[in-house]
Design brief:
Elements lengths: L1 H26 L37 E6 L21 E4 L10 H9 L5 E4 L8 H19 L4 E6 L1 H12 L6 E7 L16 H5 L5 H5 L10 E7 L19 E8 L10 H13 L14
Parallel strand pairs: 1-7, 2-3, 2-4, 4-5, 5-6, 6-7
Helix pairs in contact: 2-7, 3-4
Length: 298
């Protein structure tokens, strides 16, 4: 009986993945070019950025825990309305996955803007990018520019798949924790993934495999890392193999791993329940914080 329920859930998630893929194929051309951003000194409205890169940061805490997130067709019941227009909210940088672009975040951007986030930056990185380290360095340059333009000393990052891995490398290995307050990752292969062996012809795909040099470098000690990490992983993710590889397991990092049910890899950046969880994760840093792993999304 449990296997029957799992099969039915997998079929529903696969159907949703196909719908998301079709919709994203239509939107993809709109995100090929980078976004224009307001001139320096602009403090209101939606700010956007262009270019290639990623980034984030971490901070010491207890071992990570896993928090369940149920993903029904609408936002989770019981979700409290978040305050809107909070002046202390830093810019949010959205970083897409492999062979994708900023169009994947159309719905998430709309959700964040509706709930009071005014500084939103969607960065494109080239599909020809061959090295996670190089992409992370370029991300760092973009983040410095964003901070200078907006007047904020810190930012938050939401990275989907490879985007989250690039951002984490920036935070842990390139000193990005001084700039990144919270890093939210969606279906990111933190432990590497064994899927798509034929795609291994691309160097950056090989770097996403377990045992690659960048993955192993992320296992190294990171004492004093100041960023808070929130990693959303799906039990039905068919891109991250095994699915638990999308969890962050590092003794030096402040981590909350959030389990998502009923949603596949492609749907993570567009599902309303996940968007609600992301909003909660971004606001948790500004509210009274509990120990790592104590956050929950019902």
């Amino acid at each position: 009986m449990p296997s029957t329920r799992l099969s039915a859930a997998l079929l529903r998630a696969t159907a949703l993945e196909l719908v998301v893929l079709a919709g994203h194929a239509l939107l993809y051309p709109t995100g090929i070019t980078g976004e224009r951003h307001p001139a320096a000194g602009t403090t209101t409205g939606t700010a956007t950025g262009t270019g290639t890169g990623t980034g984030t940061a971490g901070h010491p805490g207890p071992a990570p825990a896993s928090t369940p997130l149920s993903a029904p067709a609408s936002a989770p019941a019981g979700t409290t309305a978040l305050p809107t227009g909070r002046p202390d909210r830093p810019p949010v940088v959205l970083l897409h996955g492999f062979i994708d672009n900023r169009s994947v975040f159309v719905l998430l951007r709309r959700s964040l803007a509706r709930h009071g986030w005014h500084h939103l930056e969607s960065l494109n990185y080239s599909p020809l990018t061959c090295d996670i380290r190089t992409a992370a360095e370029l991300l760092g340059r973009h983040i410095e520019e964003i901070c200078a333009r907006t007047g904020h000393r810190e930012i938050d990052i939401v990275g989907h798949s490879l985007g989250g891995l690039i951002a984490r490398y920036y935070v842990q290995r390139l000193g990005g924790d001084r700039r990144v307050r919270t890093l939210v990752t969606l279906g990111t292969p933190h432990g590497g993934t064994a899927v798509a062996p034929l795609a291994g012809a691309h160097p950056i795909v090989r770097q996403m495999r377990s045992g690659s040099a960048p993955i192993e470098e992320l296992r190294l000690p990171a004492p004093g890392c100041r960023t808070r990490f929130v990693s959303f992983w799906s039990e039905l993710d068919q891109v991250i193999v095994p699915v638990e590889a999308a969890c962050i397991d590092h003794p030096d990092l402040d981590v909350v791993n959030v389990r998502v049910t009923g949603v596949g890899h492609l749907a993570l950046p567009v599902h309303p329940a996940v968007a609600a969880g992301i909003r909660q994760a971004l606001d948790a840093h500004a509210s009274a914080q509990g120990p790592a792993g104590a956050a929950s999304v019902a």
